[in-house]
Specification:
- By secondary structure, the protein is α+β, with helices and mostly antiparallel strands.
- The protein contains 8 helices and 8 strands.
- Strands 1-8-3-6 form a 4-stranded antiparallel β-sheet. It has a 4-stranded antiparallel β-sheet with strand order 2-7-4-5.
- Strand 4 and strand 5 form a beta hairpin.
- The longest helix has 27 residues.
- The chain is globular and about 55 Å long.
């Protein structure tokens, strides 16, 4: 079912108010530069070798970050689950091309703001700039935690963490993407899941 733009704007306002209180005027400025987009399942929102030009807000479904090794092997590096903001943050901040692809894994409606328009809002509003800083800091912390987990924890523990944090999505993620994210073979992931089901 498609989501009405006003509903999506309200959900974004509620999400942002967890971090900073925006005035009605500030919310209107955000709303005025936000474009509603319907995104199909498996659609690429941001492609590698492109500069990330949009900040995207979504309230349902999940997104996959992936890239290719030199030999063509596809690696799933991360998942982003609703609700939240997403982009290739390094590219968005630097203005340089990204090395990753961002793919929708379900049909969804998103609100998209162009980079230049958002930067102008940062200049105009301390509160909007503060919200952007907090969200960027959260992204950096989550990336660091994900890297630490990948380097230090066995696959079973990482799978359990993902299951505990996002149980509603764990069975929706195709096995090959989940195994790639965990850095293991599909057969190993199947054994982990069977083992956990017996507990």
């Amino acid at each position: 079912m498609n989501m009405d733009r006003d509903i999506l704007l309200k959900k974004r306002s509620d999400f942002l108010n967890q971090y900073v209180t925006l005035t009605e005027n500030e919310l209107k400025k955000l709303d005025d530069v936000s474009v509603l987009r319907h995104v199909e399942k498996e659609q690429i929102l941001i492609g590698s070798s492109q500069a990330a030009r949009n900040m995207i807000f979504f309230v349902r479904g999940y997104l996959r970050f992936f890239h290719y090794l030199e030999d063509g092997t596809e690696i799933t590096s991360d998942f982003y689950f609703a609700p939240g903001f997403v982009t290739s943050f390094t590219s968005f901040v630097s203005g340089k091309p990204t090395n990753v692809n961002v793919q929708a894994m379900t049909d969804m409606e998103v609100l998209s703001i162009e980079r230049e328009q958002l930067l102008r809002l940062y200049d105009d509003s301390h509160n909007i700039e503060r919200a952007g800083r907090i969200l960027t800091e959260q992204f950096a912390m989550n990336s660091e935690l994900h890297l630490f987990s990948l380097l230090n924890y066995p696959a079973e523990r990482r799978y359990l963490e993902l299951f505990e944090q996002h149980p509603e999505y764990i069975n929706q993620i195709p096995l090959k993407y989940l195994a790639s994210y965990l850095g293991i073979k599909q057969e190993t992931l199947s054994r982990i899941r069977k083992k956990l089901l017996r507990k």
